[in-house]
Design goal:
Length: about 260
C-alpha cells in the first residue's frame, strides 16, 4: 500500500488516503462532527500519548471537534449574516468548512505560515477598530511572549456586537512564565513544548478580563450529552471554551448549560 501511494501523483494522494482510511477504519463507534464521518476508532497522538484523539478521515483533534460543536450549536456563526471572521493559525480540518460557509467574509492569518491569507503579528494587528464579527484563535497565545498585548489587540478589532473564542491549553494550577528561559530544551522542560513560553492556569481568564473582555467558560459536559462524549472522542481534559465579548450578549452561552443535558 505504501509503495502504491508513493507512485501516485500528488493530486491523487489525498483522495487515495481518504479512500484507504474509509476502508481501514470502517465502523460507527466514533463520529467526527467536523467531517461528518463515522469510524471504528480515533487514532492516538501526543508527546504524552493520548488515545482516541485523531479522526482518521480529517485529522481533527479533540479540541477541534469540541470547538466546532460549540460554534455550530452555541453561536450564531452558521446562521447570522456576518461581515467578517478572523481565523488565526487556521487548522487544516476547519479552514475549508469556514471558507465554504463565509466565502470572502473569511480571513485567515498567521505570522509564519505562507498558506494564510494575511501575514499577521497578533500583538500589532493591522486592521481598524471593530473590524471583525468573529475572532477564532486556538492554542496560539502560549507561543506569544506579549500575550496581554495580543488580547488587547483582539479586543480592539472585535466589533461591539461580536464574539471571540480565544483558547489555550490549561496545564498548570496557576499561570507560569519565565522570559529568561529561551533554550528550546529548557522550554520543553518548563512549559511542555519547545516553542511555548508559558503554562496557563485557570487564571488565564483574568488576563482576558484585564483586556476588557466579558468571558463565559464552557466545558465538554456543558453542551455535549454524556453518552456522546466517548463517541466524539472527547473527555473532561479536552479543554475549555473561552467565549469572549465586549459586553454580555443576550444570546451568549450561559453557565446554566452545565447540567450536560443540552443536545448536539
Amino acid at each position: 500500500m505504501k509503495v502504491l501511494k508513493a507512485c501516485l501523483p500528488t493530486w491523487l494522494k489525498k483522495p487515495f488516503k481518504q479512500f484507504r482510511n474509509s476502508i481501514k477504519y470502517a465502523g460507527t463507534d466514533r463520529y467526527c462532527p467536523v467531517c461528518n464521518k463515522s469510524s471504528s476508532q480515533f487514532l492516538p497522538t501526543g508527546f504524552i500519548r493520548r488515545e482516541n484523539a485523531i479522526c482518521p478521515h480529517c485529522n481533527s483533534l479533540e479540541r477541534h471537534r469540541l470547538v466546532y460543536l460549540f460554534m455550530k450549536n452555541k453561536t450564531n456563526l452558521f446562521e447570522a449574516k456576518l461581515n467578517c471572521m478572523l481565523h488565526v493559525a487556521p487548522e487544516p480540518c476547519l479552514e475549508p468548512l469556514f471558507r465554504k460557509l463565509l466565502g470572502n467574509k473569511y480571513v485567515t492569518a498567521d505570522l509564519l505560515n505562507p498558506r494564510a491569507m494575511v501575514k499577521m503579528d497578533i500583538t500589532d494587528i493591522q486592521y481598524p477598530d471593530e473590524t471583525f464579527d468573529v475572532i477564532y484563535c486556538s492554542h496560539v497565545l502560549e507561543h506569544v511572549p506579549a500575550d496581554r498585548k495580543a488580547m488587547s489587540e483582539f479586543y480592539r478589532v472585535l466589533k461591539s456586537s461580536g464574539w471571540a473564542l480565544l483558547l489555550v491549553p490549561i496545564t498548570a494550577d496557576k499561570t507560569y512564565e519565565d522570559p529568561s528561559i529561551v533554550d528550546p530544551d529548557e522550554r520543553l522542560k518548563a512549559f511542555g513544548q519547545k516553542d511555548h513560553v508559558r503554562r496557563y492556569g485557570p487564571d488565564y481568564i483574568d488576563r482576558l478580563r484585564e483586556a476588557g473582555f466579558k468571558v463565559v467558560v464552557s466545558e465538554v459536559g456543558d453542551f455535549v450529552k454524556p453518552d456522546d462524549i466517548v463517541r466524539l472522542g472527547l473527555s473532561g481534559s479536552t479543554g475549555e471554551i473561552y467565549y469572549c465579548t465586549k459586553d454580555y450578549l443576550d444570546d451568549a452561552p450561559k453557565h446554566e448549560l452545565s447540567d450536560g443535558d443540552s443536545s448536539l
